[in-house]
Structure formats: C-alpha cells, structure tokens
Automatic annotation (TrEMBL):
Gene3D superfamilies per the UniProt record, alphabetical: Tetratricopeptide repeat domain
Species of the source: SAR86 cluster bacterium
Record's keyword annotation contains Zinc-finger: no
Transmembrane segments: none
Organism taxonomic ancestry: Bacteria, Pseudomonadati, Pseudomonadota, Gammaproteobacteria, SAR86 cluster
InterPro entries the record matches: TPR-like_helical_dom_sf, TPR_rpt
Positions of TPR repeats: 49-82
Entry keyword Electron transport: no
Name the UniProt record assigns to this protein: Tetratricopeptide repeat protein
UniProtKB keywords: TPR repeat
Pfam families: TPR_6 (PF13174), TPR_8 (PF13181)
Domain of life of the native organism: Bacteria
C-alpha cells in the first residue's frame, strides 16, 4: 500500500486520519494482521470509540476474542457511535470464550434496541441452553 510506504518513509504524517485509511484498506483486502495494527494505532492516537470498535471487529475476525473484548469495552467507554452493535458483538466474543454471564449482560443491553432485539434474544436463549447443558454434564460427571 502506497500510504503505508509513505508513513514508513516519514513522507506522510502518521495521524489518526491516515491510520483509519490504512485500517480500512487492509480490512477491505482481508489483511487482518495489518488491519489490526492500523486500527490499534488509530485508536491509540485518537481514543475515539469507533476506532476501538473497528479494532475489535478485526481482532474478533481473527478469533482473538480476549483482545476483542478489551477493544469493544474501550469502544463503549469512548462513546462509540453505535452502542447497540458494540454490545452485540461484545456478547459474541464473550460467548466464544464461554463467558456466559458477561455475554448475557451484553446481549440484554443490545436487546434494548428494537432492530437488534430479536437477534439478541436468540443468543440469550442459546446461552441459557448452554449453561443448562454444562450444568447437567457437570452433575453427571460428579455422580
């Protein structure tokens, strides 16, 4: 990418705007490793919620859910524009790590939005089933 070369050569300023452009470019080309670096730098430079959200999305796309959770939380702490989506995808990452209670809390927040209510409630139902299944399995193993 020309922009990346310009930044490395110090011909182009390494600021939030350029890091966002770089992050978008790498995300579109599915080069998630470089996208993560660019979005991380954009977030660091700006402390803007939407940059943390994009970083979280890239991390989750690479199954780096533990890191994605931190980035989603930073997005929410820094006034991400779409809190509903941030809560929903935070719940997905928490669910991937079997953090059922935290995921339920995130999905309940997402469900407050009419457009997300149905999907969030579907995941809440799934989590309840998983918790029940795991508890029953634990009881069987202890018997």
């Amino acid at each position: 990418v020309v922009l990346e070369k310009g930044i490395k050569a110090k011909l182009v300023k390494k600021d939030e705007k350029n890091m966002k452009l770089l992050g978008t470019s790498y995300t579109m080309s599915q080069d998630m490793g470089k996208a993560i670096d660019a979005w991380g730098e954009a977030a660091r430079l700006s402390k803007e919620g939407d940059n943390y959200y994009r970083l979280a999305q890239a991390l989750a796309n690479e199954d780096r859910h533990k890191e994605a959770i931190v980035a989603y939380e930073q997005a929410l702490d820094n006034d991400v524009k779409n809190k509903t989506n941030a809560y929903f995808w935070l719940g997905i990452s928490q669910m991937q790590l079997e953090r059922w209670d935290a995921a339920s809390k995130s999905f309940r927040e997402a469900a407050k939005d009419k457009d997300m209510e149905k999907s969030a409630k579907r995941y809440l139902k799934y989590i309840a089933g998983e918790k029940y299944r795991q508890e029953e399995l634990r009881k069987m193993l202890e018997a």
